[in-house]
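User: Design a sequence. Structure:
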């Protein structure tokens, strides 16, 4: 799943995926509830991309007992409302925090000063 048709074409060329859907993270996703054992999103929760409310859809499409894994920039975590949304979803029982990494440079050659963290939540 990706917003960009160009990125979907890149994924097709790799030959290791079997489903390609153009959708926008932050809108309703065209998947049944409880479809996936795990959902992984890397490089999407950054300024100008998917909003914090997109976490709700990721939980919805994840099976009970499954995991939602995503990368998130520490600066965006607080400044763009991701922390507040994550904490609200914990308080509401939508998911439980399993682990979070320490900040690291995900792109040390291209953007060495931009840090990322990886978050893992379990859907009850």
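Assistant: Done.
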């Amino acid at each position: 799943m990706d917003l960009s048709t160009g990125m979907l074409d890149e994924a097709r060329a790799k030959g290791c995926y079997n489903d390609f859907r153009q959708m926008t993270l932050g809108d309703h996703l065209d998947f049944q509830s409880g479809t996936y054992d795990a959902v992984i999103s890397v490089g999407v929760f950054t300024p100008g991309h998917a909003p914090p409310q997109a976490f709700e859809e990721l939980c919805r499409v994840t099976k009970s007992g499954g995991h939602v894994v995503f990368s998130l920039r520490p600066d965006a975590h607080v400044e763009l409302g991701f922390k507040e949304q994550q904490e609200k979803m914990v308080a509401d029982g939508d998911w439980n925090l399993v682990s979070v990494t320490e900040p690291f440079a995900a792109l040390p050659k291209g953007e060495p000063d931009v840090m990322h963290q990886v978050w893992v939540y379990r859907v009850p």
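The longest strand covers residues 62-72. The radius of gyration is 15 Å.
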